[in-house]
Design goal:
- This protein has a single domain, classed as P-loop containing nucleotide triphosphate hydrolases (Rossmann fold), CATH 3.40.50.
- The chain is built from 11 helices and 7 strands.
- The protein starts with a strand and ends with a helix.
- Bound molecules: adenosine-5'-triphosphate and magnesium ion (MG).
- Adenosine-5'-triphosphate (ATP) binds next to helix 1 and helix 9.
Length: 253
């Protein structure tokens, strides 16, 4: 591949598995031999922290967005590359508000390094803020994790609305890679009925793969590894591998 496919993992609802998906899918794609870069675009810096990088580094996405640095790339010992975030990242949003072309800063930063990777995955914050708009503007497609829980679909209308506006105004080529059901437990009637509703509503836009509830996903965070390297045989690792296969097939890779 001569330039990376850029995918944002976005949903303004909190705690639905955005970070777990960015890290798990990244690990799965990397294990299949693809060159992967993960970008932490969330001021909570969960992705940075969950892969064992410090949130107090001098060079993070924040400095790059402010135009002080190029994108800083940290190398994880398992082989994945990461652009870390810091807790100041949320402040960057306020500082960038008056910048011309404020929604396209990340896109411009990614162009020179795009040829070095096969996939660039961006972990978005739980908001529809300037960082999320930058991620959507920089991306070829979006993965939208939806937790298989009560009120899962709440807020989806708003998200779809924002995606439509980004397509009209900033990035006409933006696609939906897929809606991903997460933390799914097939033994629970509620989860089954949420999955059915999501599938009936979004039809072909829903991934066939669902990410099951799996303790290894939560544990891998404290082990500072992706679930694939932490517990390759776990359901969590297997599900993200299946998701990677679905995406690879979709792009004919
Ligand atoms: N499939 C899963 N099985 C079990 N636990 C999971 C699974 N996916 C995510 N988790 C756990 O659920 C919590 C929320 O997941 P995660 O941090 O990925 O969500 P998020 O959407 O990134 O949250 P935020 O909106 O705060 O950024 C985390 O503690 C994570 O370890
Ligand atoms: Mg997160």
């Amino acid at each position: 591949m001569n330039k990376a496919i850029i995918i944002s993992v976005a949903n303004h609802k909190g705690g639905v598995g955005k970070t777990a998906t960015t890290v798990g899918l990244g690990g799965a794609l990397q294990s299949k031999g693809f060159r992967v870069l993960l970008i932490d675009a969330d001021g909570q810096a969960n992705l940075t922290d969950s892969l064992g990088f410090s949130m107090d580094m001098d060079k993070t996405l924040y400095e790059a967005l402010k135009g002080k640095e190029e994108l800083p790339i940290c190398k994880h010992e398992d082989g994945i590359d990461v652009v870390p975030a810091c807790l100041d990242l949320s402040a960057a949003e306020a500082e960038l508000m008056n910048e011309p072309g404020r929604e396209t800063i990340l896109s411009s930063l990614l162009q020179p390094i795009r040829k070095n990777y096969d996939f660039i995955l961006i972990d978005c914050p739980p908001s529809l803020s300037l960082l999320t708009l930058n991620a959507m503007t920089a991306s070829d497609s979006l993965i939208i994790p939806v937790q298989a829980e009560y009120l899962a679909m709440r807020g989806m209308g708003k998200l779809v609305n924002v995606i439509d506006k980004v397509k009209k105004r900033l990035n006409p080529n933006l696609k939906i890679e897929g809606i991903l059901l997460t933390m799914y437990d097939g033994r629970k009637n509620l989860h089954q009925s949420v999955a059915e509703t999501v599938q009936e509503t979004f039809k072909d836009d829903v991934f066939a793969t669902m990410i099951r509830t799996n303790v290894a996903i939560a544990e891998s965070t404290s082990a500072k590894q992706d679930v694939f390297h932490y517990a390759p045989k776990s359901n969590g690792a297997q599900d993200y591998l299946k998701l990677a296969d679905e995406i690879i097939a979709h792009h004919n890779l």
